[in-house]
Design brief:
The chain is of the alpha+beta class. The chain contains 3 helices and 3 strands, in the order H-H-E-E-E-H. Helix 2 packs across helix 3.
């Protein structure tokens, strides 16, 4: 199991609790942030966490497109 996969359960809860709608990943600067639908920005400490958030958001988007 990759480190990103380990964060998937956390990412699902984080997205629901904070109403996250986007993830910003700046690998050059090593900065990662989750953006909520209310305009708040949440600093994300690890790249793997940001990637897990992105994976969960993309999976949700694909489910919506199928409907």
């Amino acid at each position: 199991m990759s480190r990103t996969e380990e964060y998937l359960p956390w990412a699902e809860i984080f997205i629901q609790a904070r109403r996250v709608v986007a993830v910003r990943i700046d690998t050059e600067r090593g900065e990662y942030a989750a953006l909520s639908e209310t305009g708040s920005s949440f600093f994300i400490e690890r790249l793997e966490q940001a990637q897990a958030l992105l994976q969960v958001l993309q999976a949700a988007e694909r489910r919506i497109e199928k409907v």
